[in-house]
Structure formats: C-alpha cells, structure tokens
C-alpha cells in the first residue's frame, strides 16, 4: 500500500488525492517538536490556574463556568460523549479516512495543545485501518463539524463503533484487533479533536477529485458527440478564445481541438455542409466547460488552503503560553467552495444532456431518430435521454447554494453558521448523477459515430470508442439497456475513459 508523508501545513492536493484513493498518511517527523511544545504550553497554562476557554472552562454558552483541575479529564471525555450526536448513514470509509488525515495534519502543526501520544493514536488508526463509524448528518459547519468529529474522537477513547478489516465492530474491539489502546484525553484535547472543519473539507475534497474526473470525461464525450453530429471544430480555434482571455476556456478549446485532430468524420464535411453554426451544446463547449474548470480551480485553491490550516479553538501559541479564542472553525470558505463545485458539476451534466438530446433528434443531428436504424419498431436511445434529463433536473435542485443559509445554534452563542457540511456532503451524489449522464453520452456518441462508417474519428476518440465497444456492441435492435449503461458509467467513474485518450493531456484542477 502506498504511503504519503504529510508535511503539516504544506500538503498538496496530490497528497490529499492519494489519500482519498487509499494511500496511508504518515507524519513527517519534523513536526514532533511543535506538537510537544504545544502540549507543554497547555500544561503550563493549567498549572497557572487562570480560566482559559476550552482548557478549564465549559464550552459554547457555558464558557463562563470554571472547571476544577481535578475534573479536566472528565470535562474532555464529557464533551466528546455529549457532542457525539450525529444521525443518518455512516460517512463512506474513504471520506472518513480523508477526514482523519486532515485532522492529523491540523493537530500536528502544534497549535492545538494535543499530546504526541494522542496524535500518534490517530496516525496509527489510519495505518492499521481502524476507521470510526461516523453518522453523516448533524453539522452546521460552525463551531466546527462538532458532531461528526466527536464520533471520530469517541472511537479514540473506545466508545462507539469502527470499521476494521472490512467489518463493523465496537471501537474497543477494533482498536484491540489492531493492537491499539484507547487514549485518555488530557486538557484541551477533546475540544481540539472535535472542533474544526475536517468533515466538511473531506467531503468537499473528495467531490473535487471526482468532479475533476467528471470534467475530463465530459471533454472526451463532448468531442465524440461533436464528431457524431458532424459538428465543426472551427469554434475551437485558438484565436477566438485568446481574445476573451479566460484560461479555462482557452485550455478547453485546445483540448477539444486535439481530441478531434485527424478525424476523417470531421474532414468529410468541411466542404459542402450547409450548416452555418452548430447548436450551443457543441459550439459553446469551451465557454461553458472552461468556466466550469475555472470555478473548480478556484474551489481547489480554497480547499488546498483549508486543508493546510488549523481550524480548532482556542489556538495555542507556545512561544508565550497564550491561548487565543477565535473563529477558525467557521467553515464559510468550505461552504463557498462546495457551492462552486455544485454549480460546476450541475453545468457539466446539463450541457452533456443537451448534446444527448441533440443526437437523438434527427432534425438537429442528421442521424436516425433516437440513434436506431429502425425507429418505430425500436425506441433506441429515447429513454436514456429521459434518464439523463431526470438526473440533470435532480442536480439543479441540489445545486441551490448552501452557504446562503444559516440558523442560530447553542442558545444564540453561535448565531451564524456556514452550512458547509451538507453543502459538501451533497456533492458526491451530484457527481454520481452527472457521471451517469456522461456515461449515457458516451453510448450515444459512439452509436452516432457508428453511422458514419467507414469513416473514423480521430485516434484518441477511436480509442475511447474501442474501449466501449470491447464491452458494449453497436445497438442494432432494442435490448436490455441498463447493462450497457452500467458498463459505460463504470468506464467514466473509474477513469478508464480518460486513460483511453492519454495521448491528449486533459486539463485538471491544479495549476
């Protein structure tokens, strides 16, 4: 299994993507002195006996309640147990692992007051595949993702459940099976573990990585649809896009040109085609998809920054034993990033659905109705287009910005919240919907190109067609359509479609 060495505060999107895909994070040893210094500072603060929020006081609205030194361990245990109040289905294991890794990197920056042994347990749980069962609902994205992170922390003290070796079991059983022991939380540690934006950020990052694959796949199917409809590549001429200056648009146009370069189908209608302009779903791909790419890159920049931040409260500054209470736990940046991803995913799917609708309409595509050689007797691609329309409509409903909502909590102490948690949590489902649309487009575009035989498309697009045709034959007469869709969707979701056109470098979210 691949290991990623995490440098807290300086991890890359490539690192987080690898962890999302299953790599095991390991902390760079250079961070240990900062962790020790931070924990020592908390010990000195406790010894002074002064009231400091989160260390020897109550929490939230109860911050004015002073807690005796003898009760500080109980205080930290109580906050974990009382805040572990999530509901709903468990978050996917891959997302939970990413959340744990984000929390690990945050604590290891030495501003949270957590002891080395507590950090080491979290790191060991990741290494030995002990992943807390975390109900996915219950966070409003400020004062951090309290409920889900509390469930994560509860597992560390032996409470609740975990997944280990593919099985669900009690936290105590899971830790023991991995040769680990629960930790007894010291002063500040419970609050440091459950306060922060790691739940929201993990979901948003996971969706970003999947949306990047969706975007790249949609470029391939968009180019294939253009060829299937005998569309023009003139709208992808670099001179058009250079005049507008948007980076995403310029790169998208260049990619579409390269994907179609050398297509005999395209060459066949350069002379004598009476159409002056293609529909927007073909002609405006650089403008729409390029804008989506720019938005995804902005979200990526925000999330890369957030992933390297420290977002619990209060923060410990060991150089002068100061604990400063602020609001880094407020997940507004993540909420905005999640909304941006939602908008981009929605538009990628929407544009693809319009291309499918164009292909099945003989008046627009010049192809047989519903892409079947014998329409009437056969329905062909009639209902797959309806399915695509349904998925796009569902995504439109989900794309309403979560960040514009707020509801006061904690007796109005926390009177403005980000709603980043469910704003990020909806995204994977949206990407799944849009990926299914791209899968349908792959089927439809390949079918459309079949009608142009013996003319072939470009080398990259023929490679994409060959990938599909190895498992899904040309649709001559109606057959059970769902298995074809399952195969095509898997090619999109797995990244196999992108790999098939590896001769063309597809743009991504990282600069």
What's a quick, concise take on this entry?
The protein is mainly alpha-helical and 511 residues long.
Keywords:
Fumarase C, Chain A, domain 2; mainly alpha; Histidine ammonia-lyase; three-stranded antiparallel β-sheet; 2 domains; Fumarase C, Chain B, domain 1; elongated; EC 4.3.1.3; Aromatic_Lyase; two-stranded parallel sheet; 511 residues
Can you walk me through this structure?
It is a single chain. The chain has 511 residues and is mainly alpha-helical. The protein has two domains: 3-196, Fumarase/aspartase (N-terminal domain) (Fumarase C, Chain B, domain 1); 204-308 and 339-500, Up-down Bundle (Fumarase C, Chain A, domain 2), CATH 1.20.200. 54% of the residues lie in helices and 6% in strands. The chain contains 22 helices and nine strands. It has a three-stranded antiparallel β-sheet with strand order 4-6-7. α4 packs antiparallel against α5 (116-127) and α15 (332-360) runs parallel beside α19 (427-450). It is elongated. It starts with a strand and ends in an 11-residue tail after the last helix. The model has no long low-confidence stretch (mean pLDDT 95).
